[in-house]
UniProtKB/TrEMBL annotation:
Protein name from the UniProt record: Receptor-like serine/threonine-protein kinase
Family: Belongs to the protein kinase superfamily. Ser/Thr protein kinase family.
Presence of the UniProt keyword Transmembrane in the record: yes
Organism: Leersia perrieri
SUPFAM superfamilies reported in the protein's UniProt record: alpha-D-mannose-specific plant lectins, Protein kinase-like (PK-like)
Catalytic activity of the protein: L-seryl-[protein] + ATP = O-phospho-L-seryl-[protein] + ADP + H(+); L-threonyl-[protein] + ATP = O-phospho-L-threonyl-[protein] + ADP + H(+)
Signal peptide: 1-28
Keyword Transmembrane found: yes
Domain of life: Eukaryota
């Protein structure tokens, strides 16, 4: 009897459970009118479901007490978010956090304290609006009188693209430091935008767009994942699911390891299977192992440190490795070149950051060049088709692969214990653990892989977890304190937290007003505003620019701060460092490092009409150093930084000089801060630059790319040689020289070899003729049609090749 009674109770319980579930399903809403809401405490009841039940929308747990307002596939047993409103700012799970479709037509998410952390910004409408979840997974706010959508989640993707969801020039998929987007050359790319560097890694940046099977003749800039499992872009990028066909639920996701994967949902198990991925070689993604780190896949991804380097943070490989010795030290007192040797590591290389490129050189020549150059930390040498030498200044994007035939040689002190280095035959040439070499498996939370564990590792991870929790509590407390001081848009929380942890910071207008003595001492003025000298608390001298002439003063703080989070990470020895910014209503200011030797024009030109100049002629060696430094700075902006960083106003006034006459380019990034039409790329709405330095395409209203900087640099380079403004040069009849006449003169000089007639007479023959001729050749190439102009990377390499010339001049007065 007892057994039958238990069975009877079980049947009743199951019936009640079924009744509750059926009731819940029957009351699931596809469309809601104004005034509807859902509390986080009501989850897992969805806010909305699609009519066919494929998608659900509501709160998803993102932590122990953190929730996001998200959309997911209903059949997905893990409820993976395909869209989230507040991915980077989850709300409190214990309290009155709530999503509400307000009566004014705005869908808004409020935290437990009542703060709005996200909204559709559709409020204030007098129309009759409704919110619904479509069968495509698109959350839409619709004007019920016309059926027109006033807002939709498809326009604001996070890290995932759904079938039939258009991917356009105005959208991007973002996961951590990685993003998928259309660049300003119309090509679909993947970008690593880390704390120290930013670089393109897909399609492979070492070859041209066309050699990658793409085309930039693609003004539509659109991509889509269709219902059969084909992902196709208008630049001819294409990916197909291995289970190609209709009837399968799919998603395309940008992930934390820098790869884009297509997933197919198993209807019976609710699990996902990878059916296509963009990177077949995982280590092709940049930044996985941080500065100096090596990435290897065998068959799971792992990071290691080169010989003589140790890991910075065992909890986060993205922080890379640090050397255990001083190498690449250019300061006084550094060990002489003969105090260094090299450790050979096969099948290994680091992408980018070559100090220069040399072809048809011997191994010994390559080695000696690296040994004698203090900036060189390693060099790569390849024999394929002739000796190719790649000295490295910075070690980023390292990888090891058994099928890679290159070899890298690490620069280490003579007393480095090479015997401690062990090479494992099981790791395809990778480095195994030793006192000087660290190898640690990549953590699963970063790369989404199952970790290996043992007893001692369990305790280690537990300890690391406690430390991580303490770090989070510290950051949260600091953030709360700052938030109580002033209001900061929640959507900027992640970016602003990054700013707080670096030397880059946000200033108040009052701080900068006091630092400049109410903007008293003017250093200079230009097309973007006036620059003042300032002294911060602590005695640090800075230059403060008030942005007045370019259209940034009317932009919102949120948009301006978002731009500054990118500019603040740009750092190169030949660029003026941006220390911070101010954005308070109409006040938009930038804080730069102070460069105390004025600008190039003050040293180069004899200004008419009482203009300020220096009293001494700029020496040839300093001129060449300035030309090379400027080229390297622009090459960094064009090739090693973000591709949209086009200066648009390269001229002597924007090249500042240190006391040692090292060049530092100023005002870069202002083209990006200027008002533009779209979110993707640089789409300038008006001409920028200075007369005499502007490329012809400005006047022809052609699309602008980095070649405008190349043209301007060519003019500046020629002015360094000539010692005067090119725009001021005149014919015998007194008419101003035009571009065809200038190029004709330069061709004559190149053909005749008579560079003496062109060089600044004030030097009295004290110059290097080979360097001068190379500068003239480069200048001429920069003034060609833009398709024929060299890149700044090519120019920097050409100038570097002549940098070690004998400084004694061949001509004398």
């Amino acid at each position: 009897m007892v057994g039958l009674f238990d069975i009877g109770i079980l049947v009743v319980q199951l019936s009640l459970a079924c009744l509750l579930l059926c009731s819940s399903a029957s009351t699931a809403q596809h469309t809601l009118g104004a005034g509807s809401s859902l509390s986080v405490e009501d989850q897992p009841r969805p806010f909305l479901v699609s009519p066919d039940g494929t998608f659900s929308c509501g709160f998803l747990q993102a932590g122990d007490n953190a929730f996001t307002f998200s959309i997911w596939f209903t059949a997905d047993r893990s409820s993976t978010a395909v869209w989230s409103a507040n991915r980077d700012a989850p709300v409190n799970g214990r309290g009155s956090s709530r999503v509400t479709f307000r009566r004014d037509g705005e869908l808004a998410l409020a935290d437990a304290n009542g703060t709005t952390v996200w909204s559709t910004k559709t409020g204030g409408s007098k129309k009759s609006l409704a919110v619904s979840l479509r069968d495509t997974g698109n959350l839409v706010i619709t004007d019920t009188s016309t059926g027109r959508a006033t807002w939709q989640s498809f326009d604001w993707p996070t890290d995932t693209l759904l079938p039939s969801q258009p991917f356009t020039k105005n959208t991007k998929l973002v996961a951590g430091y990685y993003s998928l987007y259309f660049d300003n050359d119309n090509v679909l790319r993947m970008l690593y935008d880390g704390p120290e560097i930013a670089s393109i890694y897909w399609p492979y940046p070492g070859v041209s767009v066309f050699n990658n099977g793409r085309t930039n003749y693609n003004s539509s800039r659109i991509a889509i994942l269709d219902d059969t499992g084909v992902f196709q872009s208008s630049d001819q990028a294409k990916g197909e699911a291995s289970d190609l066909g209709l009837g399968i639920k799919r998603r395309l996701t940008m992930e934390q390891d820098g790869n884009v994967r297509m997933y197919s949902l198993n209807a019976s198990t609710g699990g996902w299977a990878v059916t296509w991925l963009a990177l077949k070689v995982p280590c092709q993604a940049h930044g996985l192992c941080g500065r100096n780190g090596l990435c290897e896949y065998q068959p799971s991804l792992r990071c290691s440190c080169p010989p003589g380097y140790v890991i910075n943070d065992s909890r986060d490989w993205r922080k890379g490795c640090k050397p255990t010795f001083a190498v690449g030290n250019c300061s006084r007192g550094a060990p002489p070149p003969e105090r260094y040797k090299f450790i050979k590591v096969p099948h290994t290389d680091f992408y980018g950051f070559d100090l220069w490129y040399n072809e048809s050189v011997t191994f010994k020549q390559c080695r000696d060049m690296c040994r004698n150059m203090c900036q060189c930390t390693a060099f790569s040498y390849r024999i394929n088709g002739g000796g190719k030498c790649y000295p490295k200044g910075t070690l980023f994007n390292g990888f090891t692969a058994a099928n890679f035939d290159g070899i890298i040689y690490f620069k280490v002190p003579q007393d480095f214990n090479a015997s401690a280095l062990q090479v494992s035959s099981q790791s395809a040439g990778g480095l195994m653990c030793s006192p000087n070499v660290t190898v640690v498996n990549v953590s699963a939370d970063v790369y989404g892989m199952a970790p290996r564990s043992s007893g001692k590792w369990t305790y280690l991870f537990a300890f690391a977890g406690v430390l991580g929790l303490l770090d989070l509590l510290f950051i949260a407390t600091g953030w709360w304190f700052l938030s109580s001081k002033q209001s900061i848009p929640s959507s900027l929380e992640a970016g602003y937290r990054m700013l707080m942890t670096s030397q880059f910071r946000r200033f108040t207008y009052r701080e900068l007003r006091d630092a400049t003595g109410n903007f008293k001492e003017e250093l200079g003025r230009g097309g973007s505003g006036v620059v003042y000298r300032g002294v911060l608390d602590g005695g640090k001298v800075v230059a403060v620019k008030r942005l007045e002439a370019i259209d940034v003063t009317t932009r919102g703080d949120e948009e301006f701060w978002a731009e500054m989070t990118v500019l603040g990470r740009i750092n190169h020895i030949n660029l003026v460092r941006i220390w911070g910014f101010c954005s308070e209503r109409k006040h938009k200011l930038l804080v730069y490092e102070y460069v105390d030797n004025q600008s190039l024009d003050r040293h180069l030109f004899e200004e008419a009409g009482g203009g300020k100049t220096t009293t001494t002629t700029l020496a040839w060696s300093d001129r060449y150093k300035i030309a090379l430094g400027t080229a390297r700075g622009l090459a960094y902006l064009h090739h090693e930084c973000l591709e949209w960083v086009i200066h648009c106003d390269v001229k002597p006034e924007n090249i500042l000089l240190t006391r040692e006459f090292d060049a530092k380019i100023a005002d870069f990034g202002l083209a990006k801060l200027s008002k533009r039409d779209g979110a993707a790329g640089v789409e300038l709405t008006h001409m920028r630059g200075t007369s005499g330095y502007m490329a012809p395409e400005w006047a022809l209203n052609l699309p602008i790319n980095a070649k405008v900087d190349v043209y301007s640099f060519g003019i500046v380079l020629l002015e360094i040689v000539v010692g005067g403004r090119i725009a001021d040069q005149r014919t015998e009849a007194g008419e101003r020289l035009q571009l065809p006449q200038i190029t004709q003169v330069l061709r004559h000089v190149v053909d005749s070899g008579d560079v003496m007639s062109l060089v600044d007479a004030r030097l009295q023959g004290q110059f290097n003729p080979r360097q001068a001729m190379e500068m003239v050749r480069i200048s001429l190439a920069c003034m060609e049609d833009r398709s024929s102009r060299p890149t700044m990377d090519d120019i920097a390499k050409s100038l570097t090749a002549f940098d070690d010339e004998d400084e004694h001049p061949a001509y004398h007065s």
